Amino acid sequence: MSSIKKLVGQTAWYGLSSIAARFISYLLTPYLTYKLSDIAYGENSIVYAFIPFLNVIVTHGMETAYFKFGTKENEAEIYNTSSFSMLFVTLLVMIGLFTWQIPLAELLQITLHPEYISLLAWIVALDALTTIPFSRLRMQERPKKFALIKVGGILINILATYSFISLLPNYVQTHPESFLQKLYQPNWEVGYILIAGIVQNVFVLLLLQKEIRAIRFKFNFKLWRSMMVYALPLVLVGFGGMINETLDRIMLGWWGPGESVDANKAMVGVYSACYKLAILITISIQAFRMGAEPFFFKQAETDQAQKTYAKVMKFFVISLCVMFLTVMLYIDIWKLFIQNPAMYVGLKVVPILLIANMFLGVYYNLSIWYKLSNKTMAGAWITLLGALITILINYLAIPHFGYMASAWATFFCYGSMMVVSYFWGQQVYPVPYATKKLIAYFVIALLVYGINLLLHLVSTNQPFNYLFASILLFAFIVFVVRIEKKDLQSIFRKSN
After folding, report:
1. Each residue of 249-297: pLDDT tens digit?
2. pTM of whole model > 0.90?
3. Angle (CA) 471 477 482, round 5°
4. Which residues, including other chains, have CB under 8 Å from residue 119's CB and lie 6 or more apart?
5. Cα 77 to chain center, whole Å?
């Protein structure tokens, strides 16, 4: 079986869990946009935008360092050292969160609920405990167990969220003498969503107990120092990435053109709900990263590594183009996942965010050059460039254009990172990417989308519009398959 076929198989399993993970927020989007006010939904989005920054600190690059330094001979030593490094940093982060609970609540504009900071501290800590055990499953190429545990935790999260927000209020109303009456807090939906996250992480920890019990009280300081030299630039990469990915929600709450704090929170809610419609692209990127990172490191030892990377990039971009069209050609269907029609005003950000995330996916694919060449600081500089673009555009334009500024900031941020990484990487670790062909596929996909837009200007017949969209999508797929027929056959042909 070809190496790319193996990557496809593993990515499919990682994708299953990634799709399910994203569908927590995606499947809950119609439910939460129905149950929560736009202000509460915006508040929830701001809180969850803060968590990834904490995750960057507690992981501090140890996950990638584990893949870089781990071999069959020293995997146990790497596993123990990276695990204890994360445990120590997580403890420090939790102390900081509990100590500065009030100032952090003021920073996130949730001053009425500083307890949310304590709840998210537990989410971050419990999630950190699972990071290296999950990495071990990936290193050992056990994607099925990885996926099943992820999906199990997700189902628990959905069940807990529904129980806290719908079942619990109904129960306390019909059972006024119940002890739950004293515990229940109305208008505390965001808090219950956070508690559901804690329940999920506890459940996952129980399922990973075998991997967690394998941790031994052994710490190799010399090895840890080498890992940190490699990993610390990745912390900057992670921070820059989180600035680019989630800080716009927080900045929109700070600087939005609304007449009040609540008006800006409502704007965050609209932007966050519409951002969810980029789900197909974002889950694909996450699934690809899960499967590709250990795969790329292992392929680096072969003679055909660069050619393999080029072929992976080509089919990855084709997949992104298909997903872009799948969303935009049927946007009138996808928008129904948002159950608050007042939020449809933000749908104009969707194509911008989809293209931006396509740029991000290509960037992640390109980033292998600095990881393989031990130039992780280059990745930090590129990501910090993107962060600077994100902050500048949002700071200058949000007061005038609201969430449209955030969407375009994401577009220019990821686009710049992609271009810089490509040209820099080709100087350090050249890979024979089919650049012209990839640009052509992207342009053709945009032309297909443009043709569909023109049809909507002259036709209001929805069944006909959907039929025409399906023909366009099918034609694009057939066109690509005909051109890439030879490479597709080589991927799925068993090696001799």
Report:
1. 989 989 999 888 888 989 999 999 899 888 778 777 776 776 666 677 7
2. no
3. 120
4. 191, 194, 195, 197, 198
5. 30
